[in-house]
Amino acid sequence: MTARFDAIGMVVSDMAASVAFYRRLGFAFPQDAETQPHTEAELPGGLRLMLDTEETVRSFLPGWRPPAGGGRTSLALRCDAPGEVDTLFEELTGAGYHGELKPWDAFWGQRYAVVLDPDGNGVDLFAPLPAPGEQLA
Q: What is the pLDDT of residue 133?
């Protein structure tokens, strides 16, 4: 028997706010996902992003409490070009989401930024930078 990576699960405080945020990033949740206690979006390669409300988790783990503070989990989303990082960052922060780290050219060769989801989880936006002397298509 071999286990294989299948899903990323996140506990959310406000399902509607979280679904709206991740839909802006292109995640395809079912039509009524914002009203459900559990929802899933299929990701490329067959992985899934699963969201559960705090109440759902408490229903099978009595006494459970959400961790204090954010920064424990992050998702990384690759953009096709460096300019798309800036555009997506501006779109999300313009819609009221917290920009944790403004776009910058990271020393590891990526245009890189971080936006926080409604629960304070980091969502890294990145795109490869062209090599010195190379131009992007």
A: 72
